[in-house]
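Regression test case RT-17, inverse folding.

Input:
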C-alpha cells in the first residue's frame, strides 16, 4: 500500500488510485504549533481553520470537563465536510492527551489538522485523500490534566482527570457486559462522541514508551504478560508492524526506553501488561473501530517544545498516513433493501472470524479491514432474510484497494406480499436484475 521514497513522499493507494503525500511541517506557517499551547489555543486555532476553510473543516465541542472550565475540542476534516455523515467515505479517529501529562500527541494531531487543511489547495494528493477519507481528530481528551501537569519525564501529576480517574482504565469492559458504576465526565464525553462517529480505524497517542500497542489489552482467561489475541489478531499485528516500520525509530530496539525490548517495535497489549477497561479494546468491541495505542516517546513531558513537536511530526508523518491508508483495504460496500433504502444496524460477518461489525452509517455503507484471503461474507438484520456471498477475495493492500461487497436484503414482510400481482413483479424487476449483476442470485 505504501512505500517511503526520497524526499519523504508517502505513497497511498485509495480506491484504486495511487497518491503521494509530500512531507511538510505546518509549523513553518503556524509557529505556535511548536509551542506547548494551551486548550484555549486549540479551540481558537480550529475555529480559525473552520472560518477560513468552511468546506473542509468542522469544529465542535464534545462538552466541558467536570470542572466547567475546559472544553474538549474535536475537528472533522474532509471535502464537503458539512455532509460527511452521508458521504461514501470511511472515517478515522485519532485522539491524544488522554493522560494530561503525555503531550506529544497534542502537537502531532494539531499539526495533522493544519497539514490536511493548508495542503488541500496546493497538493493534489492531499485533495484526493480528503475526497475519500474522513478525519476525526481530538487533540486533547484531558485538557484539565494537561493544565495541571508539569514538565517532567515521569510522574503522574496531570495524568488523571479532575475527578481523579485514569481515563484509559475507565471504559466499559466487554467481558463483564459493560458493567461499571461511574465514569469520568471526560470518558462519558468520549463514549458519546464515539457513538456519533462511525470510525473504522483509530489511534490513541500516549507517551512513556516507544511502541505500537495492539489489542487485546485484557482477557479474563489470560494472565498479565501473556499474549491475548483478538479475533482480528493478524490484522492488528499487520497494522502495528506497519506503523512501527514507517516510524523513523520505533522498530529500532536501540531507541527503545529503559529495559523495553519490543520486537519490530510492536507489542500485544496484555503481553506487555494488562490494562482492564482500556479504550482500544472498548472501541474494538463496542464501536467496531480497529484501534492502536501509539506510545510516542520515553519522556512524557519534555522541556523543549519546539524540539519535541518538530521531531514527533518528522518521526510519525509516514506512519500516520500509512496507517490511514488501511481504511481503504479489506471489504466495503452498502447494505440496502430492494428499493435502495439503507439498512442501518445490519451486521456484517466474515467466515473464520467471530467479530462482526454493525452498520452505523446513515446511508448503509460499511468498511471492514481484513488481511488478504478468501472469505464468505454475510449480511443480516432482524426482519430481513440473511444473505451470504461466497469466495470473496481480499487482495494484498500493496496491490489493490478494498473489494466491493454490496448487499441487497429482502424484507421478510415482502415474502408473502402477492397482492400487487404483476405490479409487484414490475416493481421488483430492477432490484432482481441488480442482484444478478452483483452475483447474489
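Golden output:
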Amino acid at each position: 500500500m505504501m512505500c517511503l521514497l526520497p524526499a519523504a513522499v508517502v505513497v497511498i493507494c485509495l480506491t484504486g488510485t495511487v497518491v503521494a503525500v509530500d512531507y511538510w511541517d505546518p509549523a513553518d506557517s503556524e509557529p505556535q504549533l511548536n509551542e506547548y499551547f494551551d486548550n484555549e489555543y486549540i479551540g481558537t486555532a480550529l475555529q480559525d481553520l473552520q472560518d477560513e476553510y468552511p468546506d473542509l473543516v468542522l469544529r465542535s465541542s464534545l462538552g466541558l470537563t467536570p470542572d466547567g472550565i475546559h472544553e474538549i475540542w474535536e475537528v472533522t476534516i474532509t471535502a464537503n465536510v458539512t455532509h460527511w455523515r452521508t458521504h461514501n467515505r470511511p472515517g478515522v479517529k485519532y485522539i491524544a492527551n488522554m493522560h494530561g501529562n503525555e503531550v506529544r500527541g497534542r502537537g502531532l494531531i494539531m499539526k495533522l489538522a493544519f497539514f490536511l487543511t493548508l495542503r488541500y489547495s496546493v497538493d493534489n494528493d492531499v485533495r484526493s485523500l480528503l475526497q475519500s477519507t474522513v478525519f476525526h481528530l481530538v487533540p486533547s481528551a484531558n485538557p484539565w490534566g494537561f493544565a495541571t501537569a508539569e514538565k517532567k519525564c515521569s510522574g503522574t501529576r496531570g495524568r488523571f482527570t479532575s475527578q481523579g480517574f485514569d481515563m484509559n482504565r475507565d471504559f466499559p469492559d466487554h467481558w463483564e457486559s459493560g458493567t461499571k458504576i461511574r465514569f469520568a465526565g471526560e470518558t462519558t464525553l468520549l463514549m458519546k462522541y464515539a457513538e456519533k462517529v462511525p470510525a473504522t480505524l483509530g489511534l490513541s497517542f500516549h507517551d512513556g514508551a516507544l511502541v505500537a500497542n495492539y489489542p487485546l489489552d485484557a482477557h479474563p482467561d489470560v494472565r498479565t504478560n501473556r499474549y491475548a489475541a483478538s479475533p482480528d489478531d493478524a490484522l492488528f499485528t499487520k497494522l502495528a508492524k506497519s506503523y512501527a516500520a514507517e516510524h523513523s525509530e520505533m522498530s529500532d530496539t536501540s531507541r527503545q526506553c529503559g529495559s523495553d525490548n519490543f520486537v519490530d517495535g510492536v507489542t500485544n497489549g496484555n503481553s506487555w501488561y494488562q490494562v482492564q477497561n482500556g479504550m482500544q479494546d472498548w472501541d474494538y468491541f463496542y464501536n467496531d473501530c480497529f484501534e492502536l495505542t501509539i506510545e510516542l516517546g520515553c519522556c512524557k513531558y519534555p522541556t523543549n517544545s519546539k524540539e519535541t513537536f518538530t521531531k514527533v511530526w518528522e518521526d510519525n508523518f509516514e506512519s500516520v498516513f500509512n496507517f490511514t491508508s488501511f481504511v481503504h483495504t479489506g471489504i466495503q460496500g452498502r447494505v440496502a433493501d430492494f428499493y435502495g433504502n439503507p439498512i442501518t444496524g445490519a451486521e456484517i460477518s466474515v467466515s473464520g472470524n467471530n467479530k462482526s461489525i454493525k452498520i452505523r452509517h446513515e446511508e448503509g455503507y460499511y468498511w471492514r479491514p481484513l488481511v488478504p484471503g478468501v472469505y464468505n461474507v454475510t449480511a443480516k438484520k432482524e426482519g430481513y432474510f440473511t444473505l451470504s456471498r461466497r469466495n470473496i477475495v481480499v487482495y494484498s493492500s500493496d496491490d489493490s484497494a478494498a473489494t466491493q461487497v454490496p448487499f441487497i436484503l429482502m424484507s421478510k414482510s415482502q415474502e408473502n406480499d402477492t397482492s400487487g400481482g404483476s405490479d409487484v413483479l414490475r416493481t421488483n424487476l430492477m432490484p432482481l436484475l441488480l442482484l444478478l449483476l452483483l452475483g447474489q442470485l
